[in-house]
Design a protein that fits this description.
single chain, 448 residues, alpha+beta, Immunoglobulin-like, 36% helix
Length: 448
């Protein structure tokens, strides 16, 4: 696409030309014979402006080359470099560049001062990926002054550079790699894949300290040596990650340790993708479901580690919403979609007892046939409000209100636990590990 150009005077040129107007008026009133001096002043300024335009760097030669990442993970920082070679001659004076982008990313600085070198210049931008989706670098604005500083010349280049912004799958792979090492720990619980469950894995030599009930006496007699049966956790289970994408999940939560701020929905997706990767490695099947005021995404459970790329692509369709969550429609539709016993991991949040009541009622229907992990985000803002020092009556009132809301929240979570729901109330720092630990615990208990 062709670039657009603009040329307009600088503030100094306008001010210099404006000085000639009152001078011409005063001379015309008091010294009529000298009024041409004022007019000549204005003409001289206009001539200098025209000369500055002729001497300035050609717009055609100021062709920029932009280097930006081809893709990105949400919540990360990246660099953008813009180089412009203008060749020999008079260099541009006070060059500036600005990027127009959509709402998925933030670019800083808003206006970059380009560094000028031999026959070229360089601008550096920092790009922060705020939301998942397609980030767009729409236009690049470049402007510079002529050597006299009397005109601005501007070039507007259409870019339409699309950068896919996805959940942090690099974090998923790094964490999963650590989990699957022989000495990996998940939180405080050692990874338990082999040696648990009821599915027969093989025979091994029995050693002191091993459970005597695992001895296979028939094979031991045949081989003349004590042999023990090994078991593993059952595979091929269905796991569905259900995402509430209503307006509450678009709220940002901060990791108190790293200071990183991300939406609840993005943190839920990161935790789900990590568990999905581990589940596929173990041999289970994984699917996705999303709803706000109505269901809009259902991807049936699929197996095999190679399916992770497909699950990641589907997860990009889980989008932010400003709508109120309809738990009745969302969870009842999910129950209709599932034909066999499934582990359902629900990522959601709630603030009032009315909304929680509807949510609890629909959880009861899911529990009749399925296992449910309920993942809610710990309200750290309420925690801070409750524990802060009450220096004023307003602080005391705010702490009391926050304490009341937190008590209502605890009542709902305890009620879910009594119903048989596996409840996780986690902050941004501990979310991933708590979800994984709960999954492994259910596998170890053969509860799925």
């Amino acid at each position: 696409m062709k670039f657009r150009t603009q040329t307009y005077p600088t503030r100094a040129a306008v001010f210099a030309a404006a000085l000639g107007l009152p001078a011409t008026l005063l001379l015309a009133i008091f010294l009529p014979d000298l009024w041409l001096i004022g007019a000549g002043w204005i003409a001289a300024v206009l001539g200098l402006i025209l000369l500055d335009a002729l001497l300035s760097t050609s717009i055609q030669r100021m062709e920029p080359h932009l280097e930006a990442p081809s893709s990105g993970y949400v919540g990360h920082d990246y660099d953008i470099r813009v180089t412009t070679e203008f060749g020999p001659g008079i260099p541009p004076r006070a060059p500036e560049q600005r990027l127009s982008v959509n709402d998925r990313i933030t670019v800083s600085p808003a206006l970059a001062r380009a560094g000028v070198g031999d026959g070229g210049m360089l601008s550096l931008f920092g790009m922060r990926t705020d939301l998942r989706g397609t980030a767009i670098l729409a236009r690049l604005w470049t402007r510079w002054q002529g050597p006299l500083g009397l005109i601005w010349r501007q070039r507007i280049d259409p870019l339409q550079r699309e950068i896919p912004v996805t959940s942090d799958t690099q974090m998923v792979r790094d964490t999963a790699a650590e989990i699957f090492t022989n000495d990996a720990n998940i939180g405080q619980k050692l990874q338990r894949l082999r040696g648990d469950g009821t599915e027969f894995e093989g025979l091994t030599e029995w050693l002191p300290g091993m459970d005597k009930r695992s001895i296979d006496w028939k094979h031991s007699a045949r081989h003349g040596n004590l042999l023990s049966r090994e078991f593993r956790a059952e595979r091929n289970h269905n796991i569905i990650f259900a995402f509430d994408t209503g307006h509450l999940m678009a709220e940002e939560v901060e990791n108190v340790e790293s200071g990183e701020a991300m939406t609840k929905l993005d943190r839920a997706l990161n935790a789900a993708l990590l568990m999905a990767f581990v589940s596929l490695k173990i041999g289970d099947k994984v699917g996705l479901y999303a709803f706000d005021q109505k269901p809009y995404l259902y991807a049936p459970a699929i197996g095999n580690t190679r399916s992770f790329a497909q699950i990641r692509r589907v997860s990009a369709q889980v989008d932010y919403s400003t709508a109120e969550t309809n738990f009745t429609l969302g969870l009842s539709q999910l129950a209709q979609n599932l034909q066999r016993r499934t582990l359902i991991v629900v990522f959601t949040d709630f603030v009032d007892s009315t909304q929680a009541e509807l949510m609890v009622e629909n959880m009861v229907r899911l529990l009749k046939r399925h296992i449910v992990i309920f993942v809610a985000f710990r309200n750290t803002a309420l925690d801070q409000l409750i524990t802060q020092d009450a220096l004023t009556p307003e602080d005391a009132a705010a702490s009391l209100i926050g304490d009341g809301l937190m008590r209502e929240r605890e009542v709902v979570l305890k009620r879910l636990e009594r119903m048989g729901v596996n409840v996780i109330d986690a902050d941004a720092k501990t979310l991933n590990m708590k979800v994984l630990n709960t999954y492994f615990l259910l596998k170890a208990r053969n509860a799925i």
